[in-house]
């Protein structure tokens, strides 16, 4: 009997038809996309688990708010509604809207980072680090060592290594560190949360050295849920209360409202320092739009404001996290290696364990994502060496300890039946993983964020659209994946 999780706390009002492309169509599509799932057309995808950013199902209240939004160029009432929601639920007094999270990263980096700056953080994220580097900064990973072990069961693998952080401060000097970048949750560690106790330790240390803390708040509501479930002393608090406690320990936040706030587009940068807020407003006029719309239409401002209210409702966040846990449980029961503990927004497959015969230089995670699409039309995303890019000093590929494929679950979009189909496909591919020995290589490699537009080709010819088995291996893989 399969696992069960509580019924979703909503009714379906509108549906969008989806169809599965044929095997021949999938082979044609992945070749045309250069074996990069990012370059697949949406119409060629059956179940889209590429991201949970901007593709969530909005609530009736969000749609209603959009219909009554104020589209004024300056001083829109929809902006003031968003500002009030951020102030109430996140606690920051100054709010600058942006078109999405990387807009906030750009404004923040231009405001605070100078050539020679050092930015410590609890594991890199792709767009965050590239903005830091483009402005002359160097990122330093100060996450605890357990975060790099996919099978460690540490409940807060997003925690900062306090000793590593202090050692870095003493090595480069506090004046060279404009802020500590704290993600909640940590995406590339598998959606892992940071504990309130650890965040308080980071606050105490940075206070001693006069260093700010900036929160990546895209999935902070999910982080608050994990604190409620896992951290002693917080089970009796609401998610909304915990979220505000987290933010109270920081000096500002960059937010992609396309995640926790369910919106299709939008974000914000929030701060406590009025001087930094003024600098951010000046820059947002240059790069985003007027400081009261920041690249968003009034209807988008309204959708984000209502989405903030929706996001902290206990039933919503419970259903969201438990759907992710259900998929992970199905895979773990079948022996598929997934990152543990399971995060709040995605299930992460350990590609080096699923495809142990493919060397890191042939990108096992990129290969696995392509094979999963070929098998069932499911789109996932690589989160390993391709995403990590090249070292700007040496030009060599970075090989992070984690080589993962992310199955990202959009909020309120797919049903349990869809999760069962995904599980069946992953299990089918994983059973034949040792027979897959040929990976991929670049034929087009962009300079920055290469995972978005890079193109690949098989290192050796793939048979029937999948990597050929090693000599002498059973051809069962070709039968099962064809």
Sum this structure up briefly.
The protein has 482 residues and is of the alpha/beta class. Helix content is 40%, strand content 13%. It has two domains: 23-52 and 314-481, Alpha-Beta Complex (Aspartate Aminotransferase, domain 1); 60-311, Type I PLP-dependent aspartate aminotransferase-like (Major domain) (Aspartate Aminotransferase, domain 2).
**Overall 3D shape:** globular
Count of alpha and pi helical runs: 18
- Content-based structural category: alpha/beta
How large, in whole angstroms, is the Cα Rg?
Answer: 22 Å
Q: Can you describe what's shown?
A:
This protein has 482 residues and is α/β, with parallel strands linked by helices. The chain folds into 2 domains: 23-52 and 314-481, Alpha-Beta Complex (Aspartate Aminotransferase, domain 1), CATH 3.90.1150.10; 60-311, Type I PLP-dependent aspartate aminotransferase-like (Major domain) (Aspartate Aminotransferase, domain 2). Helix content is 40%, strand content 13%. The chain has helices at residues 23-32, 60-67, 77-89, 101-112, 126-134, 162-172, 196-209, 220-230, 239-248, 274-287, 298-311, 314-333, 351-354, 364-376, 385-388, 416-431, 450-453, 476-481, and strands spanning 47-48, 94-98, 118-121, 138-141, 179-183, 212-216, 252-256, 267-271, 346-350, 378-379, 381-383, 404-408, 440-444, 455-458, 462-463, 466-467. The protein has a 5-stranded mixed beta sheet with strand order 2-8-7-6-5, sandwiched between helices. The longest helix is centred in the C-terminal third of the chain and has 20 residues, at 314-333. 52% of the residues are buried. It comes from Saccharopolyspora spinosa. InterPro entries: ArAA_b-elim_lyase/Thr_aldolase, Beta-eliminating_lyase, PyrdxlP-dep_Trfase, PyrdxlP-dep_Trfase_major, PyrdxlP-dep_Trfase_small. It holds the Pfam family Beta_elim_lyase. Its cofactor is pyridoxal 5'-phosphate.
């Amino acid at each position: 009997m399969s696992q069960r999780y509580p019924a979703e706390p909503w009714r379906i009002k509108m549906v969008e038809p989806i169809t599965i492309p044929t095997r021949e169509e999938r082979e044609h599509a992945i070749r045309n996309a250069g074996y990069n799932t990012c370059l697949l057309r949406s119409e060629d995808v059956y179940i889209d688990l590429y991201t949970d950013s901007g593709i969530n199902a909005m609530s009736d209240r969000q749609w209603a708010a959009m219909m009554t939004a104020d589209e004024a160029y300056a001083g829109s009432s929809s902006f003031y509604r968003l500002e009030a929601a951020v102030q109430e639920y996140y606690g920051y007094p100054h709010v600058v809207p942006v078109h999405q999270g990387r807009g906030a990263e750009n404004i923040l980096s231009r405001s605070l980072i100078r050539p020679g700056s050092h930015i410590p953080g609890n594991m890199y994220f792709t767009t965050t680090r590239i903005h830091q580097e483009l402005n002359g900064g160097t990122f330093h990973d100060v996450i605890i060592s357990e975060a790099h072990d996919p099978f460690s069961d540490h409940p807060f693998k997003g925690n900062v290594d306090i000793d590593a952080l202090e050692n870095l401060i003493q090595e480069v000097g506090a004046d060279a560190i404009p802020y500590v970048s704290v993600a909640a949750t940590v995406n590339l560690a598998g959606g892992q949360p940071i504990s309130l106790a650890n965040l308080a330790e980071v606050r105490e240390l940075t206070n001693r050295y006069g260093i700010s803390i900036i929160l990546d708040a895209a999935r902070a509501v999910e982080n608050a849920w994990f604190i409620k479930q896992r951290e002693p002393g917080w089970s009796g608090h609401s998610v909304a209360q915990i979220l505000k406690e987290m933010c109270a320990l920081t000096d500002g936040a960059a937010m992609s409202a396309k995640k926790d706030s369910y919106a299709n587009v939008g974000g914000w940068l929030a701060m406590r320092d009025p001087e930094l807020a003024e600098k951010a407003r000046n820059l947002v006029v240059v790069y985003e739009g007027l400081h009261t719309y920041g690249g968003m239409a009034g209807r988008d401002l309204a959708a984000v404001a209502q989405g903030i209210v929706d996001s902290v409702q206990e039933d919503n966040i419970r259903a969201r996290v438990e759907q992710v846990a259900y998929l992970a449980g199905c895979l773990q029961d079948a022996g598929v290696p997934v990152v543990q503990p399971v995060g709040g927004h995605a299930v992460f497959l350990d590609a080096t364990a699923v495809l142990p015969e493919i060397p890191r230089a042939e990108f096992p995670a990129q290969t696995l994502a392509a094979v999963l699409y070929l098998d069932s039309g499911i789109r996932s995303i690589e989160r390993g060496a391709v995403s990590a890019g090249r070292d700007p000093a040496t030009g060599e590929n970075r090989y992070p300890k984690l080589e993962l494929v992310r199955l990202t679950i959009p909020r309120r979009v797919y049903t349990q039946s869809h999760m069962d189909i995904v599980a069946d496909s992953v299990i089918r591919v994983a059973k034949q993983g040792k027979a897959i020995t040929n990976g991929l290589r670049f034929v087009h490699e962009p300079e920055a964020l290469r995972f978005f537009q890079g193109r690949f080709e098989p290192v050796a010819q793939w048979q029937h659209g999948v990597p050929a088995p090693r000599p002498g291996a059973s051809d069962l893989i070709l039968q099962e994946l064809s």
